[in-house]
Fold these 4 entries.
Entry 1:
Amino acid sequence: MKVITWNCNGAFRKKFTALDNLDADILVIQECENPETSKDESYIQWASNYLWIGRNKNKGLGVFAKPHIRLTPLQWSNQYKDHTVDYFLPCRVNEEFNLLACWCHGNNSPTFGYIGQLWKYLQINPNLENTWVVGDLNSNKIWDVWDRWWNHTDVMNILDKNGIMSIYHLLTGEEQGMESKKTFFLQRNPTKAYHIDYVFCPISYLAPSATLEVLDFDDWKHLSDHVPVIFENYY
């Protein structure tokens, strides 16, 4: 299985062909258009097997897969007390494992934006058995706040307790917050670079030959302020 996550920075209908040579089985794409409402015929034909959520038809969260892969939506809750958390797209892949696609953002929350959205989501959906967590978390340990209980580190601890590991950190041996490879470049500025896009997988699923690659910003900066992150897990 080859899984890619990429925040395309909008206008995915003009950019999807850039991913074709990467030959992914599953693509988790943030800020992409809803193929159902698109008027771009080539994008509609390309997106023949997908799930999508979003409040804005031009900027949502999509999971796109090769034709032979079955994506089944999962009815996980996004209601935390009197709040709705966005954007999380859970699905079952080939009846083999769960995939939780993520795009963490502010959601107009004065206190629980970004990683706080994922923290809330994991409180109401604690059963993470056989679950991969993939996407743009808009978060890094460097932004932890000492007196806040839903920091990046707190979310990492929840995943760790469920046996779900960050593949980048597992394979590189680097610590959270000390990543040498960056995935996001604010204002496309190489001096404002951060690691905020992740692939988490149950360690029991990890093949001995598994790899994770963060692509080069110079090759992608004309398309987005994020670079694709590629996880290959072949036995």
Entry 2:
Amino acid sequence: MSTGKHVAYVLPVYNEADGIETFHKELVAATTARPDLRFEFVYINDGSRDGSIEHLLAMREQDPRVTVLSFARNFGHQIAVTAGLDHAHEAGADAVVIMDTDLQDPPAVSLEMVERWESGADVVYAQRRTRKDTFFKKATAGAFYYLLDRMAETHIPQNVGDFRLIDKRALDVVVKYREHNRFLRGIVANIGFRQEALLFDRDARFAGESKYPLSKMIRLAADGILGFSTFPLKAISRVGITISVLSVLAGLYAIAVRLFFPAHAVAGWAFLGVGMFFLGGIQLIMIGVIGSYVGRTYVEVLNRPLYSLALVAHGEHRQGSE
């Protein structure tokens, strides 16, 4: 076994039984180019229901560098990555590479990240130059990054997912962030340090289907915006001021018509009815925005554990039991 620096791969898995072994073979093939490094492959089974855990345990029997963490239920992609980061931090990894296991993130690119890290970068994030996704996925992703760039108080690079390398000293800071509604790419952007972009071409999914349907994409977008921006709260005040100014102007107009042009005065019941429902809708939206922030605060105050593990099978870097 190499006595070089310890590089841990954090690999979340959810219903990837059809392609997980193919992914591992390609990852192993890519990492053989660096025999001077000690690699650990940390797979986090996020409550899969398709037999992924059996494949992972079989891989561990064949490759002692494989560590398997299995959740007691599905906690979501961001929490799965967090569990992997926690493990890598406890294991004393010198660097961590986060990547998905559907082969959209090419394993060879991770070795380019390692080279950037060895040249002095603390964080190397993979920025998509091209991506083989549907038009709808590209359009919604573009809209999300545009809104996030306009609203977020922390600059978060566009066309960047969770595929990245994090140095040990940056990881020391990342694991201190324990919020439940997590947006990891925002957290990593927020910590600072020397961060570099690595352009790459994202491949098509090897097998299975996307684990981010529209509902999860919207939830992730909400976590990104609400977790790193107070713009929605500020917008409420701006909308309220705008409506108040328009109401004053409308009132002055109505008074002027009544005083100077009484013959043109019209009893505007329809206008009042539409205005009432419009303002009611605006108020409900504002209450919903405030409620989103209050709800996030409530969840954090409860301070419940981020995840629960049903199984831990350590690789060769740590001693443990299944």
Entry 3:
Amino acid sequence: MDEQYDAIVLGTGLKECIISGLLSVDGLKVLHMDRNDYYGGQSASLNLKQLWERFRPGQDPPKSLGASRDYNVDMVPKFIMANGNLVRVLVHTDVVKYLEFKAVDGSYVLNKGRVEKVPATDYEALKSPLMGLFEKRRARGFFIYLQDYNPEDPRTHKGYDLRRMTMAGLYKEYGLDPMTIDFIGHALALHRDDGYLNEPALPTVMKIKLYNESLNRFEGTKSPYIYPLYGLGELPQAFARLSAVYGGTYMLNKPDAQVVYEDGKAVGVSSEGVTAKCKFVVGDPSYFPNKVHRTSQVVRAMCIMSHPIPGTDNSHSVQIILPQKQVNRKSDVYVFCCSYSHNVASKDKYIAFVSTTVETSNPEQELLSGLALLGKVDEQFVEVVDVMEPLADGKQDKCFISKGYDATSHFETTVEDVLDLYTRITGKPLDLDSKDPSKAATSS
């Protein structure tokens, strides 16, 4: 381990594995280490035995749940936007060839205590029970404007300067009522709170267009999301393979790995009495205790069930967003469900997660609105996780640190952090437009 590397990456979470793969493709000499003996770090997928060891040590899983190896329970459950940046990264790096995806059955939103399908087109808006007759006409006009809108073509702008006009102002132009604004902002644009209303409209319009493009990416899909067979733990391993193909070196089971500093800058990592030298270190917050701070906490319930979530048309995989106003909170609640159809559970078993950003001193209580939607639960585990973020950008101390994973049940914020990390490390943005994301075909 006395070699000189360009980069040493600590932790095999998804973010670290993507960065390791991208840097290896760029021709850098990368050493990747993890204190654990498995891939995935915080974003690992666990089998039943590992799940019980983590939450109920000394106990065995009930035999009624089936074989341990049939389960891949994500510790950070998230769906992938079919036309989003993670798919673009997968296609850009060719990692997509190591993975198989399946479309997610449904995207839903809580409205007045009922779970309703999210309309994403003018046609769906006309049929949606979320809106009354006159509101449907107004919403249809709004959706048509968004579908036609092209930032580069002023003829599609209808006189609105979305770089200056606020999103609240655009909603007002179409006369949309608060309930409609609620589901558009939270279930289509995927904002986590209402702060976006007073910001320029353009980013939100592009987010809604991304939702619609993702919905239309694959023929016959009912949601804009895809999800890998065998769970999200497949993603870090796929990027690890990419890094290895380009010469990256992996060392797992290094519990004593520590960053070495000289004059306040990271110059290497030591483990088992040997130091590997490098120009900079990348890693998750747990490897840099003095260089990160807690910005929030996420509370997450993991539930094993023997049925789909009621009211979701018997969907085997589904996302339900509970907008903050619907549940009297400052932040949204997210429900994520997948099942044996994605090879993450035994036959006829479903895995549901409810997660949100902690706002009170009783985090479990904050999940009740989401848990109430699930019906009977066979087994339930709850954990509260600190979300840590770096104190600095890494350019001075050569420590490039990822952020923790938020409560959202989609990957858009995760990939934003990865792309920001890549830009900070290399000084250039990653070009994701060079390949067509439609190559990331779903399985049947």
Entry 4:
Amino acid sequence: MQEQLHLYYTNDLHSNFEQWPRVVSYLKEAKASSSTENNSTWVVDIGDHMDRVHPISEAFMGKANVELLNDAGYDVVTMGNNEGITLSHQDLFHLYDEAEFEVVCANLHSLKGREPNWLKPTTTIKSVNGIKAGFIGLTAPFNAFYELLDWHVSPHFDMLKACIEELKESTDIIILLSHLGLSEDQEIARRFEDIDVIIGGHTHHLLRTGEHINNAVITAAGKHCSFIGEVILTWDHDNGKLISKEAYATDISRQPKDLQTEQKLQLLTEKADSILGETVVHLEKSIDVQWFKHTKIMQELTETIKNWTSADIAMLNSGLLLDQLPAGDISYGDIHRVCPHPINACVVEVTGNELTEVVRACFKKDFTELKLKGFGFRGEVLGRMVFAGLHVQTAFHDNGEEFVKEVSLPDGDALKSDITYRVATADTFTFGRLLPEVAKSEVKDYFLPEFLRDHLATTLKEKFSKS
């Protein structure tokens, strides 16, 4: 006898709730068609389902995401970095208290001496005919953030080895839910031949028909749930082994929306608006926002970051603010709308020479007009950089492009080439290659859990409120 096991999965939704009714509709149809007498069907999520860019996730601190996963009938999920490092310790500790599914994350541990009741390294599910599938969860090790929130992420290869040794004795199939990224998934497949399936996420890669390395099939479905993934495993009961592993990702852009889910999201939106509707500040005048020009609001916000972090200098890109703020009462929802990014302040140490190179790079057209996607940034373009504790004199080339003529301290002194300066900025620039001198700094002090929008609220109350 042969038995088919169907695993449907999502990854990296990032609270793109416009797509969620299609996801639920597709899953309902898929489960109905694949669940038969000799088939089992499971639904799993690979993390970053939550993203506080969305008002619903912001208002409920991720618990509405859990409610939506419950409603959709998920069986197992693992955690992404957006669940892990954008919530306070207490909010994450209780995030999955009401989950009706298993939460597996083998390499996450609390530094406060007590683990959440929902947190498990592995779980096992039986098929309709008794096949035991063991699930392991792993998340990306952003310990520079996690440890500031009293969590720690252990090395995933060490944790994986221990989990596999345990599951080998008690299960027939081993499935890894990996929020580590494609390159790590490929290396895991090369090192651990006992893993049958690796369902991935984090790097937003799309593998339409999977990738086979060693004994494992690796798969992932991109981002924002434009695709839904499926893994089909065929088990031969007579010979006691898997005889087929298939992986697919299906475009659901034309999938009809589930009406019940749409109604649920509308209700959650109304509740979120109420929660975020409390007035934070009253503005006598509207506040202008410009991405490519110097504005008072960006200058004051940059000054706030400099003072709050006790840095020598601060720099923030104007694209962080997405819209104007009108005169009148301003709620936290308004502030979230204008500054939705899950971005924290960070202080790096750079030399005078390095800082000068950073400033020059920030005024290049390719930088200011960059349509950045990722690294926490949820805006349109990076925009003009604004500085506090630093004077930057610019001029224009004949072609109209701006360039830096001189960089100096507020007292007029030049930056000293070999002196180290503490520079506060958005943590966005500590990743990737946007500003190499910032990213490669050996000192990176992150300030959590406050987001930049929390500092925007402080700036509005202290610098722009009605006296």
